[in-house]
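Collaborator request, handled under Task 6.
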Amino acid sequence: MRYPEAYFGELWITRLLLQRGMAAIYFVAYLAVLRQFKTLLGERGLLPVPGYLKSVSFRESPSLFHWRYSDRLLDAVAFAGLVVALCAVCGLTEAGPLWLSFAAWLLLWVLYLSIVNVGQRFYSFGWESMLLEAGFFTAFLGPARVRPSIVPVLILRWMLFRTELGAGLIKLRHDPCWRNLTCLFYHYETQPLPNPLSWRFHRIPHPLQRASVLFSHFVQIVAPFGLFAPQPVASVAGWLIVFHQLWLIVSGNYSWLNWLTAVLGIAGCSDRILSFVAPLHAPPLAPAPLLFRILLVALAAATAFLSIKPVLNLISKNQLMNFSYNRLHLVNTYGAFGRVGRERYEIVIEGTSEGLVTPHTQWQAYEFKGKPGDPMRRPPQVAPYHLRLDWLIWFLPFSVAVTGNGIHAWRHDLWFLRFIQKLLAGDAAILRLLRTNPFPQQPPVLIRALFYRYRYTNVEEKRATGAWWHRELLGIYLPPITSKTLERI
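Structure tokens returned to the collaborator:
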């Protein structure tokens, strides 16, 4: 056995699972584009792309849409990405020559890069950059009948290393509850979009919560170094990371963040280990062409150069979280939940058909698909699908000051005011992004937004009432407003 195989193990199954996993995540991402992008960012969206493109150059924000943008073209881009991703899930892109595999993965990357770079606030999440970086390097893994190279696998391990270590260090640096092992006392209750099991995870005894934080620190700060050790140590490190991500998957909704990280964990494993869960055998393998091997050497050198800033960021006291150093979203810095909220605040949007507000006015609430609203509703499972509007609504309370005298909202985001305006107009597209529309016949005359403090019910409260949440009204985030008033803003 040659030295690389002796140290890293065989990688044919590793490559296959990496490609299929990445393709599945791309499929979910393009599906979300097809179902949400036009409503949020299209020609009549909350933050229209045509207006944004007038303020940025191609160099600042590379995108095919600098050529021109239309909702029809967006549909074509999303549908093309969906089809190519589906072909990759089925293995069709890897069944042909090397150039077909390479071109298919680069197309997925270019199309999604074009979307992210015009997506503004709605595409500002760290897992967008993660998908672009991982997707780009997946292009260099090669098709099924070409001998896999360790170079792109090592680059994906390096990405996973930065992701895990960055997340671990930013926790220890930014919030004392991670250092005293108490963050999980709050996290399951205050996380962006809880899932059906989050309530139960919140009820885990505190000693076990502390042990869970300690295990998380080990997986994110110690285990990543094992990814560069010989087999089977690297496989153990990879499986520890996968297990940790599966724990996060079953306890909350984080879009495809944890799914993608789990897929990257496979990069640490060799075929010998993976054959226990995927008993497959490699076909006869041909060596990669010389030109492609030269390209891989250049790729490794470029990755090393681009890694300088992310490495400096890792050792910096002022570590950045989820930051891209280039508009191609390659070799970024990652990290999540540097701070954990101690209390959960929610904005509940209500409308009324009455033109005059009195103490007896009947208000009806709009329900979102993922975020908490009705205390009686069980939190749903939505990940790996990404509910972009729900996430942006979750961020709004961060700009609100909560005091003993009530709340003070410093400002209202433009996209939020446009969202309210579309609700007042009964916009069918925006209403499809919601779970319920309490005004199916005609839109409301007035809309307001209330500001609540939410907490999980305890076991006795849930048994007595069936409610998942208890909420307390703290103030009015947006006073009752009409469409005519909004037009003047």
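The cover message to the collaborator said: "The beta strands are 344-352, 364-365, 367-368, 400-403, 406-409, 434-436, 446-456, 469-481. The chain has a mean pLDDT of 95. Please let us know whether this matches your experimental observations."
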